[in-house]
């Protein structure tokens, strides 16, 4: 239905304003650097060129690191437009003078979501969509296991969800460092890592973006951490899954910007205008895309059950610090590998023993205090909150191949030592043989 | 007696194995055949990722395994044209640019292997895109002229006749002698099963075979893939699509598919851009994609339509049963009867559908009978729902009415059917 409405709207719009002469020739090509999937970009190409037959859009596909290298070059690889879900890149490139100001209708595009700034205040890049983070759940599987749907990040630390959860590996799945940073910003650095360690303890770790949702859809897990469009696409295609946005989550933007070096300013602005128009924004909600527009009026034709982030209760949204969020992913990726992926089986056994002991010693204050300390040690991370918020510290981890191996070895040893202490503490509660 | 029992068990096991998949209509073309073992399931997943992956211009930190796009190309990935593994869409009538299609180009004569002689300036097909710094070759544009066809009961059906032209040709005019053929991206499920059908069973059909060149063996081989049956197997079909559509070389096609005059094509690495492991994974992915199961089998109209399908001669070419001979991904399917509704052979389809271009032993009016399985789900997954080799038919009725040549009598018979019987035939086709 939504598709029909969108198509009808396009047909009407273009028949009135933009009907091209038959056989009109393309005489200008704009180059758009993007990492959006081809099914989506082809859809935009077709609809945009239908209304602008004199402009041809050429997509150059690059993910974050490659795009940063290319767009930082003096000639910017010939790019006219950068359109991608990579907030850190946009901030970095803006600071390097890579973008020129674009015109935006601020009445229609607030550039903010609650207290969170989505777009560049100076107009050098604009939010195109927002993607939410949370849980994809299989309600039947939850019901079969006698579980209620979690509502907060920390609900997933509860032992009842152990072995029911799937999580993406930060170094393998592009969206997951941001997901874990939202947990860390919501819960606090140390408590957040403890929570991640505890929920990951007996979880299944997966190495592709679609895999967590697939695991839930296929009944291999009742719950998984995910970015929302994977879950929404699965739901729209008939899977019995639902997306849950926990309290204090965040919706992070993808952006669009025009390069400083663009030689096709009017054509590039036309393409950007189309991306940000009501019709352009509706396109992203189609069944196999299911992304959330940054333009509130586009939700008037949203699919049934599709969340409007501009209408969510305040408790859903964390005031996400995008400045820190843009700089932390390399460190989070590194620490996730060290503290969660490496020794995962050993960690799972430790958390299982801690959870078993918590049940056994529920009324024993002294034992519970020891177990609290064991949990702190099991989820220990060898980086302080202060360092993790310091720009100079974070810059040391921007390139993984430049990290001192001795540093890594030291962190690995500290994590191992903390885990050994945690195991000893749990063991000390067991009766002597 | 013991031997009979073993045979019976084998037959029962074979009969129990499912080659089709059921599931949401929107996901019908992306499911693997049941029961792939761990190795084949892993290869299927890897191949799926490669099929979806956009190729990049190197060097790349993010995707070093997917470097080598272009210098000329149609799209960045396989999935861009084979949307959800279904068919592509015909060009918009508004500006007519062919996107999920390939415009094949050749000139008079044959190449050293008996195939079409490629265009001296543009190569085997027009590639509209070029990497930055290299001008794309131009666009194929389709314009349509509508005309009405009357049915015997007075109803009319509007058909559209496409005319292909080219614009923004960056490397000079194509020349008046150039032969062109616009080809829509076909669905890619069920192809592994078709690959497994024995040559002898295909050759027993009523159509004409196309014998083509096998790059791997250097032999003249039965062609069974491609709209003119011009490819002998999936590996060659897929490797050819990589080099022609994305500019990705492989062990089978180690040279960029460009005209000899295009120096852009002879720069860069000499090693194949698609590794053997990547090619194998994509071949295994396509090989393992299951066709969708039929639906509404108990509907009386579907049953009547199936009888009509045979009575008016559709099944002469759209052969309803073939057999799996040797299917290495799932040996339990060996011997199973499948229902793709194709004979994998060439037929003269008349002047209306002719592209005027030879392709090995396929003549200018010849097309390979396309499989009809999954037909009723076309367009349900977000893929195109435009039929025939160039997507000119917007409905199944239009597609039937375009049939000429050897299929003229069937199209005439359809035209003369009363409406309820036409509807029954369409109900049957939509059940596939």
TrEMBL record, chain A:
The UniProt entry, under Gene3D superfamilies, shows:
Periplasmic binding protein-like II
| Keyword Acyltransferase in record | no
Please provide the record's keywords in A-Z order. Answer: Signal
* Top-rank taxon: Bacteria
Q: List the signal peptide residues.
A: 1-26
Among the Pfam families in the record, one is: SBP_bac_6
Q: Known PANTHER family for this protein?
A: SLL0237 PROTEIN, THIAMINE-BINDING PERIPLASMIC PROTEIN-RELATED
Q: What's the protein name?
A: Extracellular solute-binding protein
Originating species = Methylocystis rosea
TrEMBL record, chain B:
Gene Ontology MF: a single term: heme binding
> Which key words are in the record?
Heme, Iron, Metal-binding
Q: Give the Pfam families listed for this entry.
A: DHOR
Q: What are the Cytochrome c domain coordinates in residue numbering?
A: 42-290, 300-432
Keyword Metal-binding in annotation: yes
What InterPro entries does its record include? Cyt_c-like_dom (IPR009056), Cyt_c-like_dom_sf (IPR036909), Cytochrome_c_Peroxidase/MauG (IPR051395), DHOR (IPR010538)
Matching entries from PANTHER family are given as: CYTOCHROME C DOMAIN-CONTAINING PROTEIN, CYTOCHROME C PEROXIDASE-RELATED
Name-wise, this protein is Thiol oxidoreductase
